[in-house]
Amino acid sequence: MKKLVCLLVAVLSFISAFAQPVEMADAMRSSGKIYVVIGTIAIVFAGLAIYLFVIDKRLRKIENNKY
Fold first, then answer.
1. For this UniProt entry, which residues form the secretion signal (predicted)?
2. Are 34 and 28 in contact (CB under 8 A)?
3. Model confidence pLDDT, tens digit, residues 54-64
């Protein structure tokens, strides 16, 4: 749970650090396409985070069984 909170804080700070107004983003926001882009990026990052946590859990299980 602590890792998930740290990951969430890191992602939110990354997003806020680079949140600068861009003309292309304004055009995409006015047509509603920006939400599709943000949603896709969020799904990809969530999938990667879940995948890494699953791999970490399996690796710990293998390491504990080995010794």
1. 1-19
2. yes
3. 999 999 999 88
SS3 7: helix
Q: Which two tokens stand for residue 61?
A: 């299980």
Q: Which sign does the torsion angle of CA 17, 21, 22, 24 carry?
A: positive
Residue spans per domain, the chain: 2-66
CB atoms within 10 A of CB 11: 14
What's the token pair of residue 54?
Answer: 């699953």
Q: Each residue of 20-33: pLDDT tens digit?
A: 666 776 777 788 88
The residue length of the chain stands at 67
pTM above 0.70, yes or no: no
* Tokens found for residue 25: 């983003």
Q: How far apart are CA 39 and CA 45, in angstroms?
A: 10
